[in-house]
Amino acid sequence: MADLVSYAREGRVARIAMDDGKVNVMSAAMLGALHAAFDRAAAEKAVVVLSGRPGVFSAGFDLKTLMGGTAGDFYAMLRLGAELALKVLAFGTPVMSVIEGHAYPMGAFLTLASDWRIGTAGDWRIGLNEVQIGIPAPRFAIEVARQRLAPAYLSRTTVTGEMFAPAEALAAGFLDEVAQPQELEAAVERALSRLLSADAESHRITKARLRGPAIAAIRAAIDEDITMTYASEVCARRAA
Protein backbone atom coordinates (compact mmCIF):
# COMPACT_ATOMS: atom_id res chain seq x y z
CA MET A 1 0.00 0.00 0.00
CA ALA A 2 2.79 2.43 0.91
CA ASP A 3 4.10 2.71 -2.68
CA LEU A 4 0.84 4.05 -4.09
CA VAL A 5 -1.31 5.04 -1.12
CA SER A 6 -0.22 6.43 2.24
CA TYR A 7 -2.19 6.15 5.47
CA ALA A 8 -1.65 8.50 8.40
CA ARG A 9 -3.75 8.42 11.56
CA GLU A 10 -4.17 11.60 13.61
CA GLY A 11 -6.55 11.09 16.52
CA ARG A 12 -9.92 10.14 15.03
CA VAL A 13 -8.86 11.14 11.50
CA ALA A 14 -7.26 8.89 8.87
CA ARG A 15 -5.61 10.70 5.97
CA ILE A 16 -5.45 8.53 2.86
CA ALA A 17 -3.35 10.00 0.06
CA MET A 18 -2.90 8.66 -3.47
CA ASP A 19 0.49 9.28 -5.07
CA ASP A 20 1.91 7.13 -7.86
CA GLY A 21 4.39 9.86 -8.78
CA LYS A 22 2.49 10.62 -11.99
CA VAL A 23 -1.25 11.10 -12.49
CA ASN A 24 -2.72 8.61 -9.98
CA VAL A 25 -4.01 6.16 -12.56
CA MET A 26 -6.62 3.82 -11.07
CA SER A 27 -4.85 0.58 -11.88
CA ALA A 28 -5.78 -2.65 -10.12
CA ALA A 29 -2.78 -2.06 -7.83
CA MET A 30 -3.91 1.47 -6.90
CA LEU A 31 -7.48 0.32 -6.35
CA GLY A 32 -6.33 -2.59 -4.22
CA ALA A 33 -4.24 -0.24 -2.09
CA LEU A 34 -7.22 2.09 -1.63
CA HIS A 35 -9.44 -0.81 -0.60
CA ALA A 36 -6.86 -1.81 2.02
CA ALA A 37 -6.64 1.75 3.32
CA PHE A 38 -10.41 2.14 3.63
CA ASP A 39 -10.68 -1.28 5.29
CA ARG A 40 -8.13 -0.15 7.86
CA ALA A 41 -10.03 3.10 8.44
CA ALA A 42 -13.26 1.14 8.86
CA ALA A 43 -11.63 -1.14 11.44
CA GLU A 44 -10.34 1.92 13.31
CA LYS A 45 -13.69 3.75 12.96
CA ALA A 46 -11.79 6.76 11.64
CA VAL A 47 -13.11 9.78 9.79
CA VAL A 48 -11.37 9.75 6.38
CA VAL A 49 -9.72 12.52 4.39
CA LEU A 50 -8.93 11.27 0.87
CA SER A 51 -6.57 13.28 -1.32
CA GLY A 52 -4.42 13.04 -4.44
CA ARG A 53 -1.42 14.90 -5.79
CA PRO A 54 -1.35 18.67 -6.33
CA GLY A 55 -2.55 19.17 -9.89
CA VAL A 56 -4.24 15.79 -10.19
CA PHE A 57 -6.61 13.88 -7.96
CA SER A 58 -6.78 10.94 -10.38
CA ALA A 59 -6.61 10.44 -14.14
CA GLY A 60 -9.18 7.67 -13.78
CA PHE A 61 -9.06 4.02 -14.82
CA ASP A 62 -5.87 2.75 -16.45
CA LEU A 63 -6.47 3.35 -20.17
CA LYS A 64 -3.97 0.65 -21.14
CA THR A 65 -6.17 -1.89 -19.39
CA LEU A 66 -9.42 -0.33 -20.63
CA MET A 67 -8.33 -0.18 -24.24
CA GLY A 68 -5.82 -3.00 -24.60
CA GLY A 69 -5.79 -5.29 -21.57
CA THR A 70 -7.04 -8.85 -21.34
CA ALA A 71 -10.64 -9.57 -20.41
CA GLY A 72 -9.48 -10.77 -17.01
CA ASP A 73 -7.49 -7.60 -16.33
CA PHE A 74 -10.35 -5.41 -17.55
CA TYR A 75 -12.84 -7.23 -15.34
CA ALA A 76 -10.62 -7.12 -12.25
CA MET A 77 -9.94 -3.37 -12.55
CA LEU A 78 -13.54 -2.40 -13.27
CA ARG A 79 -14.88 -4.57 -10.44
CA LEU A 80 -12.34 -3.19 -7.96
CA GLY A 81 -13.26 0.37 -8.93
CA ALA A 82 -17.00 -0.18 -8.71
CA GLU A 83 -16.73 -1.93 -5.35
CA LEU A 84 -14.54 0.88 -4.02
CA ALA A 85 -17.04 3.56 -5.04
CA LEU A 86 -19.79 1.58 -3.31
CA LYS A 87 -17.61 1.09 -0.21
CA VAL A 88 -17.00 4.84 0.07
CA LEU A 89 -20.67 5.68 -0.55
CA ALA A 90 -21.78 3.34 2.25
CA PHE A 91 -18.83 3.99 4.58
CA GLY A 92 -19.82 3.96 8.23
CA THR A 93 -17.88 7.11 9.17
CA PRO A 94 -17.64 10.45 7.33
CA VAL A 95 -15.44 10.62 4.23
CA MET A 96 -14.06 13.91 2.89
CA SER A 97 -12.36 14.18 -0.50
CA VAL A 98 -9.87 16.97 -1.17
CA ILE A 99 -9.42 17.64 -4.88
CA GLU A 100 -6.46 19.75 -5.96
CA GLY A 101 -6.48 18.86 -9.64
CA HIS A 102 -8.02 16.85 -12.46
CA ALA A 103 -10.48 14.11 -11.50
CA TYR A 104 -11.36 11.89 -14.45
CA PRO A 105 -14.11 9.27 -14.14
CA MET A 106 -12.93 6.82 -11.47
CA GLY A 107 -11.54 9.76 -9.49
CA ALA A 108 -14.84 11.57 -10.01
CA PHE A 109 -16.74 8.47 -8.79
CA LEU A 110 -14.85 8.54 -5.49
CA THR A 111 -15.52 12.25 -5.16
CA LEU A 112 -19.24 11.72 -5.81
CA ALA A 113 -19.33 8.93 -3.21
CA SER A 114 -17.78 11.08 -0.47
CA ASP A 115 -19.73 12.99 2.17
CA TRP A 116 -17.96 16.33 1.78
CA ARG A 117 -15.92 17.43 -1.23
CA ILE A 118 -13.50 20.37 -1.16
CA GLY A 119 -11.83 21.47 -4.38
CA THR A 120 -9.19 24.11 -4.89
CA ALA A 121 -9.65 26.97 -7.31
CA GLY A 122 -7.48 26.40 -10.37
CA ASP A 123 -7.16 25.23 -13.96
CA TRP A 124 -8.44 21.67 -13.71
CA ARG A 125 -11.52 19.66 -14.66
CA ILE A 126 -13.76 16.97 -13.21
CA GLY A 127 -16.41 14.87 -14.92
CA LEU A 128 -17.43 11.64 -16.60
CA ASN A 129 -15.88 11.70 -20.06
CA GLU A 130 -16.30 8.03 -21.03
CA VAL A 131 -18.28 8.73 -24.22
CA GLN A 132 -15.45 10.96 -25.44
CA ILE A 133 -13.07 7.99 -25.41
CA GLY A 134 -15.50 5.46 -26.84
CA ILE A 135 -16.72 3.81 -23.63
CA PRO A 136 -20.40 3.76 -22.56
CA ALA A 137 -20.68 5.05 -18.99
CA PRO A 138 -21.09 2.03 -16.66
CA ARG A 139 -24.49 1.74 -15.01
CA PHE A 140 -22.93 1.70 -11.52
CA ALA A 141 -21.18 4.98 -12.33
CA ILE A 142 -24.40 6.63 -13.51
CA GLU A 143 -26.08 5.62 -10.25
CA VAL A 144 -23.16 7.00 -8.19
CA ALA A 145 -23.45 10.27 -10.11
CA ARG A 146 -27.24 10.40 -9.99
CA GLN A 147 -27.35 10.64 -6.19
CA ARG A 148 -25.18 13.79 -6.10
CA LEU A 149 -25.43 15.70 -9.38
CA ALA A 150 -28.09 18.17 -10.46
CA PRO A 151 -30.15 16.48 -13.22
CA ALA A 152 -29.11 18.80 -16.04
CA TYR A 153 -25.43 18.39 -15.19
CA LEU A 154 -25.82 14.63 -14.85
CA SER A 155 -27.08 14.52 -18.43
CA ARG A 156 -24.38 16.85 -19.71
CA THR A 157 -21.46 14.95 -18.20
CA THR A 158 -22.68 11.39 -18.89
CA VAL A 159 -24.25 11.88 -22.31
CA THR A 160 -21.75 14.35 -23.80
CA GLY A 161 -18.68 13.69 -21.65
CA GLU A 162 -18.43 17.34 -20.59
CA MET A 163 -15.86 18.14 -17.90
CA PHE A 164 -16.22 21.06 -15.50
CA ALA A 165 -13.87 23.62 -13.92
CA PRO A 166 -14.14 24.09 -10.13
CA ALA A 167 -16.76 26.84 -10.07
CA GLU A 168 -19.15 24.96 -12.34
CA ALA A 169 -18.32 21.66 -10.62
CA LEU A 170 -19.63 23.29 -7.45
CA ALA A 171 -22.89 24.22 -9.18
CA ALA A 172 -23.17 20.75 -10.72
CA GLY A 173 -22.78 18.92 -7.42
CA PHE A 174 -19.32 17.43 -7.89
CA LEU A 175 -18.05 19.67 -5.09
CA ASP A 176 -19.47 21.12 -1.88
CA GLU A 177 -16.86 23.85 -1.47
CA VAL A 178 -14.14 25.58 -3.47
CA ALA A 179 -11.18 27.09 -1.59
CA GLN A 180 -8.20 29.09 -2.73
CA PRO A 181 -5.06 26.92 -2.57
CA GLN A 182 -3.57 28.96 0.26
CA GLU A 183 -6.79 28.55 2.25
CA LEU A 184 -7.23 24.82 1.65
CA GLU A 185 -5.90 23.52 4.96
CA ALA A 186 -8.09 25.91 6.92
CA ALA A 187 -11.12 24.80 4.89
CA VAL A 188 -10.28 21.13 5.52
CA GLU A 189 -9.95 21.76 9.26
CA ARG A 190 -13.30 23.59 9.38
CA ALA A 191 -15.03 20.75 7.58
CA LEU A 192 -13.32 18.16 9.79
CA SER A 193 -14.50 19.96 12.90
CA ARG A 194 -18.10 19.66 11.70
CA LEU A 195 -17.72 16.01 10.66
CA LEU A 196 -16.07 15.06 13.95
CA SER A 197 -18.80 16.78 15.95
CA ALA A 198 -21.56 14.63 14.43
CA ASP A 199 -22.80 11.73 16.53
CA ALA A 200 -21.14 8.69 14.96
CA GLU A 201 -24.10 6.30 15.22
CA SER A 202 -26.58 8.90 14.03
CA HIS A 203 -24.35 9.61 11.05
CA ARG A 204 -24.11 5.92 10.15
CA ILE A 205 -27.85 5.30 10.41
CA THR A 206 -28.84 8.46 8.55
CA LYS A 207 -26.39 7.78 5.72
CA ALA A 208 -27.75 4.26 5.35
CA ARG A 209 -31.33 5.56 5.25
CA LEU A 210 -30.60 8.37 2.81
CA ARG A 211 -28.44 6.35 0.44
CA GLY A 212 -30.23 3.01 0.76
CA PRO A 213 -31.95 3.16 -2.65
CA ALA A 214 -28.74 4.29 -4.41
CA ILE A 215 -26.67 1.63 -2.64
CA ALA A 216 -29.16 -1.06 -3.69
CA ALA A 217 -29.16 0.18 -7.31
CA ILE A 218 -25.36 0.29 -7.45
CA ARG A 219 -25.06 -3.17 -5.88
CA ALA A 220 -27.44 -4.57 -8.50
CA ALA A 221 -25.61 -2.79 -11.33
CA ILE A 222 -22.25 -4.20 -10.23
CA ASP A 223 -23.53 -7.74 -9.88
CA GLU A 224 -25.54 -7.71 -13.11
CA ASP A 225 -23.23 -5.72 -15.38
CA ILE A 226 -19.63 -6.27 -14.30
CA THR A 227 -19.03 -9.90 -15.18
CA MET A 228 -16.40 -11.87 -17.06
CA THR A 229 -18.94 -12.31 -19.84
CA TYR A 230 -19.28 -8.54 -20.15
CA ALA A 231 -15.51 -8.06 -20.05
CA SER A 232 -15.01 -10.68 -22.76
CA GLU A 233 -17.66 -9.03 -24.96
CA VAL A 234 -16.02 -5.61 -24.57
CA CYS A 235 -12.61 -7.01 -25.44
CA ALA A 236 -14.03 -8.82 -28.46
CA ARG A 237 -15.65 -5.62 -29.76
CA ARG A 238 -12.43 -3.74 -29.12
CA ALA A 239 -10.45 -6.25 -31.17
CA ALA A 240 -12.94 -6.33 -34.09
Characterization of the model:
The protein has 240 residues and is of the alpha/beta class. The chain has a single domain (5-197), classed as 2-enoyl-CoA Hydratase, Chain A, domain 1 (Alpha-Beta Complex), CATH 3.90.226. Helix content is 53%, strand content 19%. It is built from ten helices and twelve strands. The protein has helices spanning 28-44, 63-68, 71-89, 105-113, 139-146, 151-160, 166-172, 184-197, 200-225, 228-239; strands spanning 5-10, 13-18, 25-26, 47-51, 55-58, 60-61, 95-99, 101-103, 116-120, 126-127, 163-164, 177-179. The strands form four sheets. A six-stranded mixed sheet has the order 1-2-4-7-9-12, sandwiched between helices. Strands 3-6 form a two-stranded parallel sheet. Strand 1 and strand 2 (13-18) form a beta hairpin. Helix 3 (71-89) packs parallel to helix 4 (105-113) and helix 3 (71-89) packs antiparallel against helix 9. The longest helix is centred in the last third of the chain and has 26 residues, at 200-225. The radius of gyration is 17 Å and the shape is globular. It starts with a strand and ends with a helix. The model has no long low-confidence stretch (mean pLDDT 95).
How many H/I helical runs?
Answer: 10
Specify the structural class. Answer: alpha/beta
**Lateral arrangement of strands in the main beta sheet:** 1-2-4-7-9-12
Low-confidence stretches: none
Q: How many beta-strand runs?
A: 12
The name CATH uses for the topology is: 2-enoyl-CoA Hydratase, Chain A, domain 1
Tell me the radius of gyration.
Answer: 17 Å
- Which CATH class is shown? Alpha Beta
CATH architecture assignment name: Alpha-Beta Complex
Strand content: 15-25%
SSE topology string: EEEHEEEHHEEHEEHHEHEHHH
The named CATH superfamily: 2-enoyl-CoA Hydratase, Chain A, domain 1
Shape: globular
* Amino-to-carboxy terminus distance: 37 Å
Number of structural domains: 1
